[in-house]
Design brief:
- By secondary structure, the chain is of the alpha/beta class.
- It folds into 2 domains: about 140 residues, Rossmann fold (3-Layer(aba) Sandwich); about 180 residues, 2-Layer Sandwich (Dihydrodipicolinate Reductase, domain 2), CATH 3.30.360.
- About 30% of the residues lie in helices and about 25% in strands.
- The chain is built from 8 helices and 13 strands.
- Helix 1 packs across helix 8, helix 3 runs parallel beside helix 5 and helix 3 crosses helix 8.
- The chain is globular, with a radius of gyration of 20 Å.
- It starts with a strand and ends with a helix.
- About 45% of the residues are buried.
Length: about 325
């Protein structure tokens, strides 16, 4: 099997998970070259790597470069992304700087792999909440087109990065011992709280995170006619985003039809037996590759509506796994 030299920019929560996924899936990498802001030795996912300083010449000789920026983190792909392409690599970017760029396909391999045909050396990973939502609804949309979608997300702190994970741990311990809670990462305490605020607010009253879901859904589905609205919420969970999704179709889609379609869809597990208290849980999805769907039921306030509950690990399928799957699709078809 042909081997590939893989670059990885950033070794935070997502970058570390990318190393794990590359190893777990036996990606044919002859080299994993980690780049960061400064040179050092670092243990990443149980391996010791000599981390190189990210600068233009550090990308020479690489075939594929994964940019592992945490959601909302700016800079690395803007500074080095197209430079890496110029030096011969294909870039897969987890950040949001180029998602809506017309030159850059926005890809979920189970949903729109054909978009890779249009790549110009640079491919974007969608937002974690967009990936998770569309994994659950795209198989249905392909059978019966959507007209409208309302999503309410319940997003774990790992979506913000390592500092948020550590802060939730500190706050939980402080609550138990009666000590003072540090509040630095979010504008309010996150432990035992719910924040209807992810990313910055726009003049419209929506947040950037909410508009990412709106705009990215339309781009991935290649259908601007789908009406999309979202409310994104941060919750005191370490790993796993949960989403309440309401969808309206152009014609009938029953819960049984939806379950049958989803059971056949790659990367999906249907967990839908409320009478036995079986439904998707963030704690069960953490560390797993699949997207879990349940609570599928009719919304009788519209003619052809369904409600669903969709859960997945935001660091795996919502970020690292999706990026590696893009790389696998690339080498299978193009490299």
């Amino acid at each position: 099997m042909k081997q590939y030299k893989v670059g990885l920019v950033g070794i935070g929560a997502v970058g570390t998970e990318m190393v794990k996924v590359l190893r777990q899936r036996k990606f044919p990498a002859s080299e994993i070259r980690i780049l960061a802001t400064r040179e050092r030795d670092e243990e990443v996912a149980g391996e010791t790597f000599h981390v190189l300083e990210a600068k233009p010449e550090a990308f020479d000789g690489l075939d594929i470069v994964l940019f592992a920026g945490t959601e909302g983190s700016k800079g690395a792909s803007k500074q080095f992304g197209w430079e890496a392409v110029k030096r011969g690599a294909v870039v897969i970017d987890n950040g949001d700087d180029y998602r809506m760029d017309d030159r850059v396909p926005l890809v979920i391999p189970e949903i729109n792999p054909e978009a890779l045909d249009r790549h110009q050396g640079f491919i974007a990973n969608p937002n974690c909440s967009t990936i998770i939502t569309l994994m659950g609804i795209a198989p249905l949309h392909k059978q019966v087109p959507l007209r409208h979608m309302t999503a309410v997300t319940f997003q774990s702190v790992s979506g913000t990065g390592r500092t948020a994970i550590e802060e939730l741990e500190q706050q939980a311990r402080a609550y138990a011992t009666g000590d003072a809670m540090a509040v630095n990462t979010y504008p309010h305490q996150i432990a035992f709280n719910v924040l209807p605020h992810i990313d910055s607010f726009l003049d419209t009253g929506y947040t950037k995170e909410e508009m990412k879901m709106v705009n990215e859904t339309k781009k991935i589905m290649e259908d601007d006619s789908i009406a999309v609205t979202a409310t994104t919420v941060r919750v005191p969970v370490f790993y796993g985003h949960s989403e309440s999704v309401n969808i309206e179709f152009e014609r009938e889609m029953t819960p049984d039809m939806a379950r049958k379609l989803l059971k056949k869809a790659p990367g999906i597990k249907v967990v839908d037996d409320p009478a036995k208290n079986k439904y998707p849980l963030a704690i069960d999805a953490a560390g797993k590759d699949d997207t879990y769907v349940g609570r599928i039921r009719i919304d009788d306030t519209v003619k052809y509506g369904l409600n669903m509950w969709i859960v997945a690990d935001n660091i795996r399928k919502g970020a690292a796994l999706n990026a590696v799957q893009i790389a696998e699709a690339l080498i299978k078809k193009y490299l």
